[in-house]
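A note from the maintainers: we've had questions about how concatenated examples are separated. There is no special marker in the raw files; a new sequence line simply starts the next protein. For clarity in this README we add a label.
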Amino acid sequence: MNLVRKIKLKKRLLVCFLLLSIIPIILISFFTYKLSSNSAKRKLADSNKQLLSLINTNMKGEIEKYQYVCGSICINEDIQEALLKYDMSDIEKNKTILSIQDIVKTRIIYPANAKNITILDKNGRLFYDLGYDGFFQKDLEEIYSKTLNEDKDSFTYVKTYSGRDIIVLSRKIYNHYQKKEIIGFTLISIDEGLFSKTVLNPAEIHDGSNIILMDAYGTVLSSWDRSIPLGEKYNSSEIIKNINAINKNSGTFTLDIDGERQQVTYFYNRDIDKFFLSFVPYSYIDSAASVIARDVTIVAILLICVCCFILLFIHSSIADPVENMASACKDIEQGDLSVRINDSGQDELAFLAGSINSMVEEISSLLQIQKLQEKQKREVELQMLQYQINPHFLFNTLNTLKLVAQMNHDEVVSEGIKSLSELLKNTLVEKNEFISIEEEMNNLKNYMAIMKIRYAGSFTEIFELDESILKNKIPKLLLQPLIENSIVHGAPNDGRILNICIKCKEIGSDICIEIEDDGVGFDVNEVLTSNDSTASSTNPLKGLGTENVNQRIKLNFGDPYGVTIKSEKNKGTVCTVLIPAIKP
């Protein structure tokens, strides 16, 4: 193995490609066989097209005989006059039928394959029948409906009372004097068996093959193979889909029929809107080439076995080093940057292993730098969040104090100015990021004193503080946005006073601060699922203040800490702040 590894990878691959040059020989043999087979298929398809074209020509001559009979009946003046009489008595009708029968037998010459002549009135009722064999009523109604809706002669397969297979040629009878008025229908019954022998049987087809006549809906009207049921659909959806995909008067496609793959060739007769289809099984087409295919397959298998043995040997010289690198990369992905790849080879894979080792060392160095940058970034973000302050609060407060001063000469103004002064001193002058809980509570008292002036004493506050933890440290102005939410968003609409309770206690090694009010509250789930773009300015869950408080806590102390809000409509809201206990 080491001897092979001394050879450059490029040379190894070159040797491998030379050895694999034997495979193209196999491919050439295979494709030669396929091309020969496809050529035979194309020639057979062209031959079938010509055959169907001859059958179509033969059928045109046969159909013209029946169409001549139809035309003779449709233009006969006696028959036209009889169909125009709607109110004939039974005696007159019998005379008319005898007259028509005389006309049909003496004046009209129809082919021997025409087994019956039927005339319907314009409403589809039986007017005259030659009487050899009749139709079932449902078939008669189907023929009437189909003929009425088509613009040309219609061909329909039916079975007679005696079970005879019949192809019915039907045509509308128009009034001579009003060309658009339909006064009846002519039906010529053609014996399907005799028709098949006359039109389809003269064609020479191969073993297992078949030729059928099919309408545009996939219904079989006539078939050379008598085992195929007539009047039923024969793989119609697939056949019609393939014909529509080719979209030509003739074409060839492949179709699986009864588990056997067959070549289907079709020819479209536009005059009667019907298809001639030829079916030839691929087993017949490939029978002559099967022996060649067997021999080629045996040779190909032997050559492939030899090539595989050589490829396995060369593959191991490439795959083993690659697997070592992959294993090392997996460990590195899990975070173990102490992994190194040991490879003593002299090829490109060894060089790649050394490059990966260098890259890991560089990544380790960059991670140390990134950690330092993240720490600096965190400090900057904390400072930016600390200095975020709502200027509207200052302006609104000052305007409120100014208005009160103008209206009342009261100590309220001095108390308000005093509270504002203390608050501004602690926020703008004091630069420490952390202050004691006691100082934070004093800031809250000053803030709430100012808000009482602004909102005309619409709330009261209660402080329930654990005296033993008042010296613990807390981020400065952490609670002010939450108090503002309670005052602004929690105020009752019925005019009652809002009660706010601030509780501070120690739970294990953490400090828990609760801000509870008995205000209007809200539905937490409804707010979380709301897509309203104004939601951030109208609820405490999505407001800038609440989000800033939560971000400050998580940036300082990590994900286990933060703000949680519980609320219920018309009962109030509880904001819980959880931070670690920081001793002085």
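[label: protein 2]
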Amino acid sequence: MRYFIALVIMVIGNISAYSQTGKISGYINEEGTNKDVPFCNVVLFDFNDSIIEGTISNEKGIFRFENLSFGTYYLSFQSLTHEIFVTKKFTLSIKSPSKDFGTVPLKVSSIKTDEVTISVERTAVKIEPAKKTFDVETTGADIGGTAIDVLNNLPSVDVDDGGNVSLRGNSNIRVLIDGKPAGLTPEDITAVIKQLPANAIETIEIITVPSAKYDPEGIGGIINIKLKKERRKGYRGSVSLSYSTIDKLNSQVSLNLNKKKWSINTSYNYTDGTYWYRRSNNGIFLESDSLTAFDNYSKTNKRTANQNGNLNLEYKISKSTKVSFEGSLRNTYSRRIDSLEFYWDYNGLDNKSNTRNSDYEEFRKNALGQLNLSYKNKKGNSVTFLSRMNGISNPKESHFVEPYVLQKENKNFKAQAFINQLDFEFPIINNKKDSSKSNFLFLETGFKSAARKFSEEYELFNFNPSFVAYELQEEYTNILDYDEEIYAAYGLFKSGNKFNKLSTGIRVEYSDITSRTKNNNFNKTLINIFPSASLVHNLSETTTIALNYSKRIKRPRGKQLNPIPTYLDPYTLRVGNADLVPEKSHMSEISYLKIGKKIVFNSTLFHQYRKDRLGRLSYTDSNAVSTILWINFNYHQTLGLELFTNYKLNKKIKINSSGTFYNTWVDGENFRVGFTAVYFGYDLKLNLQIKPWKSTAFTLTSDYNSRRLAVVGIVIPRYGTDVSLKHNVFGGKGTLSLRFTDVFFTRRFGIDVNTDGWLREVRYRYESQLLWFGFNYSFGQSSTEGKSKFRRVSPNERSF
């Protein structure tokens, strides 16, 4: 009996011990003044430096943690208005279940650049439903190079050798810079991101299923490139320089001045460099009684010099109202020299060869101005208005030389866009308490008008030696004017509580599109409706499931609608199609997010159905002349799985890995019987970050794009590896960097084409292996005064 009593006592004792929990409390004030420090972030770490929990001090500076497991911990106090303070490690146990810090004095910050660099560890990625935000500096891709290098390092994003960006294998995406369109045409967007220095970028947002609030253009989703800006009071600036391989240079200067009611942010960057490209196209044409071999090889050297200036002015009229103006000017000069060799072999009897040397020169000027007005009252009602103008001028002149042939080509592209947008937000129910019973309900609505105009003039001249002059080739003369007016209205309801969030919306657009050529006029008026829905359920503080859906559109524009052939070279013609209709996309996904102490796991199952898919089709005749034609395929459907993992091995090693696996069905039998494709593809990416010392960081990035089947052939795999090294100098104010791209020289693009009896092997190789040296120096001083409001952040909203 006594043993039984002893056993019961032991069990009760153990249950009692396990049922006990610890607590931590304290009071935060300002050193010297003894003022309360409200809304200060207080983060609890365990002995392995893993985040356990976070809270904020109340309005009187008091903080507390409760229901804590026994163990060894330490606290970190983080406030924008004060210096970071970290306590010594302490232990909660049965004998000492509580820890009262009493008064914790914090020093007021007068923050210099080096102090910020040392005390703040940059986060790699922030994960939200249907959206991921990546910090560029942590990828290592900010050393040398341009935005293209940065994008190629991100999960599910791919950039081909021509600078065309795709997301989850879809190249029709909307690219924004600070929330504004990067360009008016696909060519313009490619030119902009090729010239934007990587070290000018702060973060990149990837939005896979945008809501009805967003412009529905871009069926693949949205990529928003956010540039570096200073928001703290005071003055700050930076100078950066990257150099590679004889004549490649990226440089940037930025200066920021922030006062209590107004701020100025300015930057200027200059990029210059010459890059080489190589292409081979080996083809065989089979007929019943003949075989024709046609090969061509090209060598290209292209120099691009770009200057870009940005200015942002902001003035706070009152606590609730502010006005800002943003402007940018971009000037680009490009010169490309091509050498193209052609070879024919007709049944092994008649061998011919030809050469074509080309000299292209172009000037591109881009100007943008935007006015922003915003108002928000104490109840949370807000109104924002923006008005934006954008203009492009892009004249090109080219000269071609062949045996006994001289040609000249003139192109002049101009574009204008005028955008006005008005947005409202009304909190119908706005309970700020952080509990499952606290509901909220918001209504967002807005109106938008957009007028875009494009014009392109094309002229081809042949030299006539008899008259010693160039003569216009009328059959290839091309004049295209394109006008587009769009009027849109949207409404979006957001409701929920701590554990469930629901968003439903609808957008209605009316569009009037007119295109004019020298012989024909085309006009279309359309009304489209774009619904969206999102449901987020927090299973716990660390686990989230989200369901998202949206409908989007891709409108044919410009040269895609022009039926007059454009002469590219003696063996390539490009033809538009006036009968094209907009492509409509239905995108849905289910996402799962799990956050652990050292690992973050995110998986997304996605499906996309694209009706009337817009695409280019290339066919070649027996004379080896290829015609590139725009058509609408019946449909394009993709079912895929995206996996992303962020793992912190220890203080010095972090690993980001991702994989996108998808199966695609394409049906083009409306154009020709048998034009279908079904294929499986996958993209893999790995980012390894190692900090051997506090001021030194090493990053390795690898990517692999699998073999894919297209309607006209097979796209070969593409893969590569980049490494970078950074070291802080001058007390953290400066950074020395080294980056080596395409370490094993494996990046290339290739496709094996099999259409209309033509078998072609096309390969592109470009100057991808580069060694970049970089230096960045930051200067200035900023201080923060007054209250800074914080809200409690749950683990599934944190950055990692």
